[in-house]
Amino acid sequence: MTAPDHRFETFLTGPMHDYFVSQTHFEVNGSWPYGERSHGVLGVLESYADLLGVSPDARVIADYLHLLSRQKIKGHALCPCGSGKRLRDCHSDDLRRLSQRIPSFMAKRMHATITPRKAA
After folding, report:
1. Is the C-alpha dihedral spanning 84, 85, 88, 91 positive or negative?
2. What is the pTM assigned to this prediction?
3. Which of 51, 53, 55, 65 has the highest CB neighbour count under 10 A?
4. Position 112 confidence tier, pLDDT thresholds 50, 70, 90
């Protein structure tokens, strides 16, 4: 997604302002006001895990995103939580709620960021 307003002033009063406020908070209090994530892929996994409401396990996150990237989620698929149960008997309600918040095209993009590409 891109920002609707691309002016430099908006950048200064938005992300830069938030950055300096949080940096000042850290220097005064020794903690980050909005929490802290790891760097790189691990930070992305932590973020996706929070969004999905699952553990930061790469396989579980990838399985959830794979199902969310489909146009229709069928109940006979294996549940992405790793229980070995069918989706309809496990987390189908949770996955349907997530599919209302995360469009399939976005789930595909998210999945691509954590899945290694196959060599051609």
Report:
1. negative
2. 0.69
3. 65
4. very high
Cβ distance 38 to 58 under 8 Å?
Answer: no
Q: Each residue of 55-104: pLDDT tens digit?
A: 889 999 999 999 999 988 888 889 999 899 999 999 999 999 999 999 99
DSSP run (H or E) holding 68: helix 58-68
Please tell me the distance from the alpha carbon of residue 28 to that of residue 67, in angstroms, as a whole number. Answer: 44
Which residues on adjacent β-strands are paired with residue 78?
Answer: 86
| In contact, 48 and 86? CB cutoff 8 Å | no
DSSP state string for 24-59: HHHHHHSS-TT----SHHHHHHHHHHHHHTS-S-HH
Q: What is the DSSP string of 11-24?
A: HIIIIIHHHHHHHH
Q: How far apart are CA 49 and CA 43, in angstroms?
A: 10
Contact criterion met (CB below 8 Å) for 54 and 34? no
